Amino acid sequence: MLYSLEQVLANRPPLITVRHDAPMIDAFRLLIERRLGQLPVVDGTGRLVGILSQQALLSIYHMTDGKAPLFDLAVVDGMEPAHTLSPQDDLLAAVDKLRARGVYAVIVVQEERPVGILTGKDMSVFFHSLFEGILLVERIEKLFKAAIKAVLPDEDAYTKALIAAFGADKTDPERPARGGRGLSLTDMVYFIRDDDNWPLFEPIFGNRDYFRVFMERVRAVRNEIAHFQGHVDTLEMDALRRAAVWLENRLLLATAIHGDDKIAGDDEKGGEDIQTLERFVTGRKPLVSTAPDTPLRQALGVMIENRFGQLPVIDAHGCLLGMLSQQSILRTYYHTDGAVALLDLPVQHCAEAAAILRIEDDLFQAADALARPGVYAPLVMAGDKPVSILTGKDMTHFFRSLFEGIILIERIETRLREYADAAFPDPEVMNEAAKRVFGLGPKNPEYAARNPARFMLADRILFMSDDDVWPAFEPALGSRDLFMILMDRARRVRNALMHFRGNLSYSEQDTLRLAYTWLSQRLLPSAAALPFSPLEEYTPARTTGNNPYPKVMSRKLRTLPVGDAAQEGE
Known about the structure:
This protein is mainly α. It has 21 helices and eleven strands. The protein has helices spanning 5-8, 24-33, 54-63, 91-99, 120-151, 155-166, 185-193, 198-205, 208-227, 234-258, 277-281, 296-306, 326-335, 363-371, 392-423, 427-438, 457-465, 470-477, 480-497, 506-520, 549-553; strands at 18-19, 38-42, 48-53, 84-85, 105-110, 113-119, 310-314, 320-325, 356-358, 379-382, 385-389. Residues 267-272 and 540-544 have low confidence and may be disordered.
């Protein structure tokens, strides 16, 4: 479940506020010295009564033609209504508020008192953290695939190793119950550490206990990212970084020992490149800018009218000279003690250096730049010419699509779990049903080859679609073909999302919405009346052996253009 704002705000420094009756110069000092864009305003009892922003101060300054003695006003004179949420609201609610025109901060309020603030800058930091986690997980998966391919390049040997780890297919003992080169991270970890397979991998990975503990930690963080089960904190991100570096070092060591340059993982297929800024900014409105000799009065008017926080300063040849921002204007006003008629001066007197991105940079580099302290709106450059600008609000719009996709996938998986639990409330019955779908566990035939408690999305769809257990779900779900096709499309989008390269398309988002809507309108099944005795000893002869879902998984789709990565994984 998407984490709450209470979780988001955990371990943050105390919120900085200002009283409504404080002199405006005190608010100026906080805004400048702490490099803040907004300040929550409280009354004498600590209750939230509004918000003070750079935008509001500059609007007053411009509206009064620079004649208002800003330092001598009270905070209440520039205060505006605040947009609020509670600690129990989730991050998506904050994202939706921040996407609205003119909303640059959301204040989290508990019992009428402000406890935190969220801005577009925060969204950039969250996006950067999640995006980095996805990329690190993918790098780890590529390194595992490289190691497996190097150790088991022969398909026959690889098939035998798969059967050793996952058991044989319930209808064909020569085929593995789970196979192919597109194993998920979880499967690859289990495959490598399997008792029969570990001796093959020990020369690469060394100590087995260390491998097991380390990779369990990585799997836990990976699942947290995939299911958005709370904020991925610094220690968890460090675990992913260390895992990627450790794997690279182990594979490099093995390369030096074995002399096989393919073991390092660079030849593994990595999918499309991360979406570049050129693709991201294509189709946007032309960049609005100002000349260095434009009076500040005119440039500030453009900023206020359009609710811009910044304006690039560009010369007659289209070359960048700097950036005019709300912060730079207020800093100049503050440090000149409000004694200079700034509106009459050219904007170059209030401009500052601009943060730069190149049009060939990717979205991760953009998120990285926006996550840095003091960077609020880097310019995108094509050569020596600025072509666009990126802000925290842009990242908020972009991140919204990713958030919704993750949330819908989590809801789909949760709903499928609810169906299975309703049909098989007894764990023993569930285990027996899983045996009929996946066969016996290769190491312990008392259990199914796939543990129902660890079903991934593909496992759950495969389980529910099987001839032996579908009768338990048919009364509630109706058409098996419709179920399989809708859920498989959701699975493909889910896998594409975990190999994230850019924004989800409308078709991908709509696939998830349709799949979840369809599931949510179906009733939960009753406890299953199965065509077999749940406690009857399982043998392959007592299963029909028919499951139409694998054919659905391998179908080429004409109406859901996702990348090759969607065919692999969980």
